[in-house]
Amino acid sequence: MMFRGETARQITRLTRDTLALILAGGRGSRLKHLTVWRAKPAVPFGGKFRIIDFPLSNCMNSGIRRVGVLTQYKAHSLILHIQKGWGFLRGELGEFIELLPAQQRIETSWYTGTADAVYQNLDIIRNHHPSFVLVLAGDHVYKMDYGAMLIHHVDSNADVTVACVEVPVERAHEFGVVTVDAQSRITKFLEKPKDPEPIPGRPGITLASMGIYVFNTKFLYEQLVRDAGTTSSAHDFGKNVIPSIMDSCRVMAYPFRDPVTKKQPYWRDVGTVDALWEANIELVEITPELNLYDEEWPIWTYQEQLPPAKFVFDDDLRRGMATDSMVSGGCVISGSKVSHSLLFSNVKVHSFCEVDDSVVMPDVVINRHCRLRKTLIDKGCHLPEGTIIGENPEEDAKRFYVTRQGVVLVTPDMLGQQLHHAR
User: Fold this and answer.
1) Can you give the chain as a three-state secondary structure string?
2) What pLDDT score was predicted for residue 423?
């Protein structure tokens, strides 16, 4: 999104006066075994990224260089990733990415909800003196210019602005659903309703919160203190804070649309195994909706120093090749065929294997004579020689996790390879 002249200068002033807080403490239980040993924002995505890289990159590309990452559940790998890959900001210029783990600064409990997580860090927020606080979910994959949302917030004279996306009604139970008037003021906010209202004149489509909020800072302080004193509250923005202020305050919706085409840009909640597999597999298409090659809006991450991918052997029965696939650095495909699959960094595929429709996370070893169909292989798995997965759902279900759409999730623990346990 390009802005010129006074508008661009106004956005620059707004982004400089904004503190972004990324809520990255959730377990993400719908991802099943993938989040037994890591928080959802730390889950690998797209060949070499982590989910947390997308909101962090959006902040950098939007000109927001003051960021706090609120962590809680099994955050070690997430913390390591941020320390290794996001340490390039200059503190002397007022730029930072601060890690804000749950540390009982105000209460004697851990974070109990999204609003409580921010409330327990109020003293830190106050020390940064922001004019606006941008609250972000750390577990969605998308590209978004937060500067445009900030200027919409100021121009609409809002107390709080909620970014919204259109979703099918059948999926609305996964989100907070909003109803707006003709001026985009939110008149109703229901968290994960069983029977959501469609958009007027748009049957089958409803308007959902993206979990992205812009608050005027003083207003945020007031609402968090009030909510903290409400014993009946779950201390959550979507369940409690936003619904409680709609009648008395100016709560506005910001529609997530391309300013030129007016279409809804790419946005994925990769909160289930099926959704994560599908979002990764989409990337191997010829022109995927999510453009990872966009030089104007790069996605930043921790870059391992790895050699290029390598394909070896060219015999009729032993040819190393990959078709309609993405293969990351450090991979070696030795005398095997990979098709319509995404291989993360440092994957080794030994001879006489077939890998189809699969997402293979970093540091996986696939030994000889394996066949994989529609699988999601977690980081660090070593598949024994002759392993066959994805051809017999009943047999797969005895050892692995099989989703409703037939994706087979394999983790080291399922293979008896207890990488995370004390030895």
Assistant:
1) CCCCHHHHHHHHHHHHCEEEEEECCCCCHHHHHHHCCCCHHHCEECCCEECCHHHHHHHHHHCCCEEEEEECCCCHHHHHHHHHHCCCCCHHHCCEEEEEECCCCCCCCCCCCHHHHHHCCHHHHHHHCCCEEEEEECCEEECCCHHHHHHHHHHCCCCEEEEEEEEEHHHHHHCEEEEECCCCEEEEEEECCCCCCCECCECCEEEEEEEEEEEEHHHHHHHHHHHHCCCCCCCCHHHHHHHHHCCCCCEEEEECCCCCCCCCCCEEECCCHHHHHHHHHHCCCCCCCCCCCCCCCCCCCCCCCCCCCEEECEECCEECEEECCEECCCCEEECCEEECCEECCCCEECCCCEEECCEECCCCEECCCCEEECEEECCCCEECCCCEECCCHHHHHHHCEECCCCCEEECCHHHCCCCCCCC
2) 37
Beta carbons within 8 Å of 160's beta carbon, 6+ residues apart = 213, 214, 215, 216, 219, 220, 242, 245, 249, 250, 251, 252
- At 171 the pLDDT is 86
pTM for the structure as a whole: 0.94
Q: Report d(CA 170, CA 96) in Å as an integer.
A: 40
Domains and CATH numbers, the chain: 5-282 (3.90.550.10), 310-415 (2.160.10.10)
Task: Measure CA of the first residue to CA of the last residue in the chain; give whole Å.
Answer: 52
How far apart are alpha carbons 410 and 147 in whole angstroms?
40
C-alpha 143/C-alpha 53 separation (Å) is 11
Q: What is the pLDDT of residue 260?
A: 84
Q: Which residues does the chain have with pLDDT short of 50? A: 1-2, 422-423
pLDDT of res. 122: 95
Instruction: Check if the beta carbon of residue 256 is closer than 8 Å to that of residue 265.
Output: yes
Q: What is residue 4's predicted lDDT score, i.e. its pLDDT?
A: 54
Distance CA 71, CA 73 (A): 7
pLDDT at 356: 98
